Automatic annotation (TrEMBL):
Keywords (A to Z) from UniProt: Hydrolase, Magnesium, Metal-binding
GO biological process: inositol metabolic process; phosphatidylinositol phosphate biosynthetic process; signal transduction
Protein name: Inositol-1-monophosphatase
Residues noted as binding Mg(2+) in the record, renumbered to the chain: E82, D97, L99, D100, D238
Lineage: Bacteria, Pseudomonadati, Pseudomonadota, Betaproteobacteria, Burkholderiales
Domain of life, source organism: Bacteria
One Pfam entry name: Inositol_P
UniProt cross-references to InterPro entries, sorted A to Z: IMPase (IPR033942), Inositol_monoP_metal-BS (IPR020583), Inositol_monophosphatase-like (IPR000760), Inositol_monophosphatase_CS (IPR020550), Inositol_monophosphatase_SuhB (IPR022337)
Amino acid sequence: MQPSAQPSARNAPLDLCAALDAAVTAAHAGAAILQSYAHHRADLVIDRKARNDLVSQADREAEAAVIAELRERTPHYGIVAEETGGEVNGAATWYIDPLDGTTNFLHGIPHYAVSIALIAHAGTSVTAGTALAVDTPVVAAVYDPCREELFNAVHGLGAWLNGHRINCSRTQTLDDAVLATGFPFRDFSFAEQYMPMLHDAINLTRGVRRLGAAALDLAWTAAGRYDGYWEMGLAPWDVAAGTLIVREAGGVAEDMYGVDPWPIGGYVVSGNKAVAGALKAMIAPHLRSRTA
């Protein structure tokens, strides 16, 4: 688990509305750069960070635009970003994925997003007189520029899609559920655990989808398009924003191991409360401990 920032003077509650406005503005700035490259992807310079782990100048320029906006408007918060790194700092830290769904983007598949979340650190106040006991996502923005869909959420206030409140589905059982997932694509060390989970999901549910953008999988779960979603081996910035959006839509988004206060380790299970519980029970027999 990544350590929290050290406690400091955090008596004044965070201005979550101002932070949300900054996140939305930054998400649009990053998406504008992505879309400027969308019709000439063949000209992009693509680097390979690892097997099936790609980065282009679109990712880098979008991230720079997002960071510039957030640093100007919230200079006192830390920043952790996919391409340039950063550090946890202050009362809260931004987690940024400038292009969630890079492989989709590079292949012309119109399913990708900019994902931005603010994680308030333990000891920070988000309401007067109340300090958070653990690190907690408190502001989120996930913007899909292809559909012009903006998902956002604020801790304790709710989740929205293009200004309309959203809620997780009301599906009560796995056999009526459509689930989303992500196959191992970069880290194959957990494949032996994952494949039996997928086998069970195929046989026990109405259907399983894999569209290749974790932030949108979580956002779509919050909007009731999926009833549940699980994935392994992700990065913190993949799931930070979506975790809050699901939670504020009345659902569950948790660390698969039940250890971290949010899925910072990249092992996430989510859904409405009924489906999330059934999904956790389905994957539990196949899940090894972290030390295994």
